[in-house]
Amino acid sequence: MHMTLIDPDKQKPEVAGEIAYEAFRFGTSAIMVGGSTGVERKSLEETLRSIKSKVTVPLISFPSGVSGVSPLFDALYFLSMLNSRSPRHITGEQAAGAPVVKSFGIEPIGMGYIIVEPGMKVGEVGEAEPIRRSDLARAAGYALAAEYFGMKLVYLEAGSGSPVHVPSEMVRAVKKEITIPLLVGGGIRSEKAAREVAEAGADIVVTGTVVERKDGISQLKDIISAVRDGR
Ligand code: 1GP
After folding, report:
1. Which of 4, 28, 216, 230 lies in the 20 to 30 Å Cα band around 202?
2. For residue 174, what is the domain's CATH number?
3. Distance, CA of 167 to CA of 170 (rounded, Å)
């Protein structure tokens, strides 16, 4: 499966709607919305409305904190950054956000969020101790811990805009260890990269910034087909 990540702070709401529509047309399975630095409420809601008017796939919140929650979402990744050095990103923001999620009636989906080098902005903001790219055992350990905690999904994140994606050997090692679905994202900008990650065992391949490039929309089309062909 492929999912498209849209950061509401990166473009106008109308443009976000157009990107979502193209991704939807090419076969993306859901639109994830979130940004690593916290989002502004008004631009979030306008972006969500614009996307909702263009697509019928689910809209999933990918929050960096309580500001990323809105009743307009169909579901929310209730994520814990397992390899953060700060309790705030493991359980703190979550404790503040949980009652809000409940009051909005959105479906929370528990997720173990694991930052892999280089980690980029989200690694910095989340005060992560990124997993070294060669440390397959550590990545697998965190992923299995997520499963044992009862989380529903594991996300291996190299960071948005990363020059490299999570190594395929790491995806393979993690996939071998767990039985829950595995998401992989960060730095996937080509059909080849998407295929490699999917073949290594990613159940869901996430792309975000590829659409910001000049040839982004056609790249996105190829990426989505590569991921879906591999089913
Ligand atoms: C970020 O993994 C996602 O959380 C997407 O990364 O923007 O590099 O595609 P990119």
Report:
1. 216
2. 3.20.20.390
3. 5
Atom of ligand 1 nearest to the CA of 162: 8
Distance between alpha carbon 81 and the CA centroid of its chain, in Å?
Answer: 12
pTM score of the predicted model: 0.96
Q: Which residue has the tokens 């009051």?
A: 103
Three-state SS for 96?
Answer: helix
Backbone angles phi, psi at 153, to 5 degrees: -145, 155
- 107, β-bridge pairs: 75
Q: Is the CB of 5 under 6 A from ligand 1?
A: yes
What is the number of structural domains in the chain? 1
| Ligand 1 pocket test target in 122, 207, 224 with most atoms within 8 Å of CB | 207
